[in-house]
Every structure is written in C-alpha cells, then in structure tokens.
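Today's session is about reading a structure prediction critically. Students often jump straight to the picture, but the first step is always the sequence itself: look for stretches that repeat, for charged clusters, for runs of hydrophobic residues. Only then move on to the predicted structure, which in these notes is written as discrete structure tokens rather than atom positions. Here is the chain we will use throughout the hour.
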Amino acid sequence: MYLKDFTTLIFGLNPYYQLYFQVDNTLIPITKFSVNDQSAVLHTNSNSNTALNLKTFFTLSNQSVLSDKEILINYDFNTFKVFGYRIAENKLLINGKLRL
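Below is the predicted structure for this chain, in token form.
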C-alpha cells in the first residue's frame, strides 16, 4: 500500500488513536516513523509502553512529499507491507504481510 492511500483511509479518525502492528494475537507498539529513498517506514518497539498516535503520525508524514512511497513496517528485523487496519479499544491495529 502506498502512503497516500493509507493516509486517505485513516483521515478523519480520532487523532489520539495509537498505532500498533498486529502479529497473530499480539499488539506491538509503533513508536517511530521514518522515510528512506524508496519507502515510508513504521518502526515497532516491543519493549515500549507507548505508541505513536495518529496526530503525530500525520505531522511527521506531512513534512515532505511522500505520496509515491510504499508504506512498510519494520518488526523484529523483518519488513512487512501494510495491507490494512482495524480499530479496537482506541487503537489503530495495522496488518502487514512479510515482504520477501
């Protein structure tokens, strides 16, 4: 999924929803957002007690033109493509598929 598509899908949601990566039945906090030449990356930290919220994510993602960048998740030294999300308990739970 491209960053432009993802931000369009989540636009208008509660800005205080926290971002988590859902792996099986485990929720891993997304704590950082970065950009490289080819993609926008959400970084996880399983040791963190806090997660990035949507307001902060929008602020960070709007700092440069990123519409043509693929959005990925970095988790446990692996890269996952974002392919959807769901909302539960004031959290935005992002789903990903391992990028081969």
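Discussion point for the tutorial: The two ends are 15 Å apart (CA to CA).
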